[in-house]
């Protein structure tokens, strides 16, 4: 009976997401590194399925190459830097692992494991340090999704690093007799590790913020609010923290933390409050549809709009309109 390896399912899902990002959201979410990472990860999972599911050991060399690419692409996917000489540092990392594979294949799993652990630590530390400001390049509506994606990616990298280290140890001890068992255990252990990593990293987003003058905070938030309202920047569904920080000539990380200290809101909620206010004004004074008011105010999806409207007003848009329409 023909069997499909279990890794083919997540690989297919990742491939579909990558195609969707590339064809539908590329103009709204400029994330070529993320697309490259998803494609490479999907390919790696297909190769794993082909090797352990069908015995195609010939794909091992390709696995080593994709395995060397995945950690740096994971880091680039969420920090999303522009092309610069610093990118060459990641190319050097890939090249170094490649040299080990070519000239010392018996050390390949050790090299891959070390690279994977290093990038997992780097990505986790970047999020620990900057929180949601890691995603200043992306429209604010994607912050929650990217945060969860980063957590899942760190968990995947840690699991991959542990697997590589275990396989390397197995080859040294028994010549690779337990490799398939280790690969299977890694698949089942991934869920628990993912949950633990998500909890840890989400908690890290609430790190302590430096004490500053409350008066200075209030003035900056007031200046930010005035600028956003005057220019109606909140109506842009693709508004990013990076754009706001550039307009104010104020560092993105400090701007986000100042808003949080002063209002108790993250930047996405802060902007959405303005959008909800605009929607309420339109619902109360005109007879436009809720959907039209939602889109005019800068919301992109109905589910997010309804959730944010209830957070701010405690009611659905229809309920609020029936009580406040003039």
Give an overview in words:
This protein is an all-alpha fold and 326 residues long. The chain has two domains: 8-204, no CATH class; 214-324, Homeodomain-like (Arc Repressor Mutant, subunit A, Orthogonal Bundle), CATH 1.10.10. It is 75% helix and 0% strand. It has 14 helices and no strands. It has helices at residues 8-25, 32-54, 60-79, 87-103, 108-130, 143-174, 179-204, 214-231, 241-248, 252-263, 267-285, 290-297, 302-313, 317-324. Helix 1 (8-25) packs antiparallel against helix 2 (32-54), helix 6 (143-174) packs antiparallel against helix 7 (179-204) and helix 11 (267-285) packs across helix 12 (290-297). It is elongated and about 80 Å long.
Write the layout of secondary structure elements.
Elements: H1 8-25, H2 32-54, H3 60-79, H4 87-103, H5 108-130, H6 143-174, H7 179-204, H8 214-231, H9 241-248, H10 252-263, H11 267-285, H12 290-297, H13 302-313, H14 317-324
Overall mean confidence score, pLDDT: 81
Number of domains: 2
Strand content: under 5%
Computed CA radius of gyration, to the nearest angstrom: 24 Å
Q: Count of helical segments?
A: 14
Based on secondary structure, the structural category is mainly alpha
Q: Which range best describes the helical content: under 10%, 10-25%, 25-40%, 40-55%, 55-70% or over 70%?
A: over 70%
| Low-confidence spans | 190-212
The count of DSSP E runs of length 2 or more, i.e. the number of strands, is 0
Biggest β-sheet description: none
Reading the helices and strands in chain order gives HHHHHHHHHHHHHH
**Shape label:** elongated
The CA-CA distance between the termini, in Å, is: 69 Å
